[in-house]
Design brief:
The complex is a heterodimer of chains A (114) and B (106).
Chain A lengths: L2 E4 L3 E3 L5 E8 L8 E6 L5 E7 L6 E3 L7 E6 L4 E6 L8 E7 L4 E2 L3 E5 L2
Chain B lengths: L3 E4 L2 E4 L5 E7 L7 E6 L6 E5 L3 E2 L7 E6 L2 E6 L8 E7 L5 E2 L3 E5 L1
Classes of the chains: A mainly beta (114), B mainly beta (106).
């Protein structure tokens, strides 16, 4: 069965970067694009961007350009998202989601605090 | 960018009620519209895709429809387990979520 296993919670300091991972299993990793979604506590869902694991091609929500960088490692069927220049406003749960949104990871909580 | 305006933002209904949630797209998205249910502490669950198609395992009391640029999620007879936050998503051009609707029992 399809599974997306995300990395554990992160507590990071303002101004630093963090790299989240999402390991896919149960399907051919390069067959489906991978989305990343942000959800702040008590708030809605924001689409960050999407990556084609086969080509590495990406598209981003303009709001997250320069903030998020999406990559993949095909050899381990893992997608990554790096968030840079972190501020408290980046504190949220981040999900990886296989297109077309039937399969979601369990989410990774990122807390940005000094 | 495509904007998705979801209404209402919150809704209180009784068991057995018919409930409808709506999303309006700022431009044509065809039928590239999905609906999700999210319960506290859980990842969202796909309920409807292609505006009207029920995802496997979703109870038949859920349905989706379209009228022009308005897309609706309807629960024909509300059950207690349906209390959740519901989101729409357009996936015609990039992806955009609606703002969410919190559905509670009256």
């Amino acid at each position: 069965q399809v599974q997306l296993q995300q990395s554990g919670a992160e507590l990071v300091k303002p101004g630093t970067s963090v790299k989240l991972s999402c390991k896919a299993s149960g399907y051919t990793f390069t067959s489906n694009h991978m989305n990343w979604i942000k959800q702040t506590t008590g708030q809605g869902l924001e689409w960050i961007g999407i990556i084609n694991p086969g080509s590495g091609g990406t598209s981003y929500n303009v709001k997250f350009k320069g903030k998020a960088t999406l990559t993949v490692d095909k050899s381990s069927s893992t997608a990554f998202m790096q968030l840079s220049s972190l501020t408290p406003e980046d504190s949220a749960v981040y999900y990886c989601v296989r297109d077309w949104f039937a399969y979601w990871g369990q989410g990774t909580l990122v807390t940005v605090s000094s | 960018d495509i904007q998705m305006t979801q209404s209402p933002s919150s809704l209180s209904a009784s068991l057995g009620d018919r409930v409808t949630i709506t999303c309006r797209a700022s431009q044509d998205i065809g039928n590239y519209l999905s609906w999700f249910q999210q319960k506290p502490g859980k990842s969202p669950r796909l309920m409807i895709y292609g505006a009207t198609n029920l995802e496997d395992g979703v109870p038949s009391r859920f349905s989706g429809s379209r009228s022009g640029s308005d897309y609706s999620l309807t629960i024909s007879s509300l059950e207690s387990e349906d209390t959740a936050i519901y989101y729409c998503l357009q996936y015609d051009k990039y992806r955009t979520f609606g703002g969410g609707t919190k559905l509670e029992l009256k």
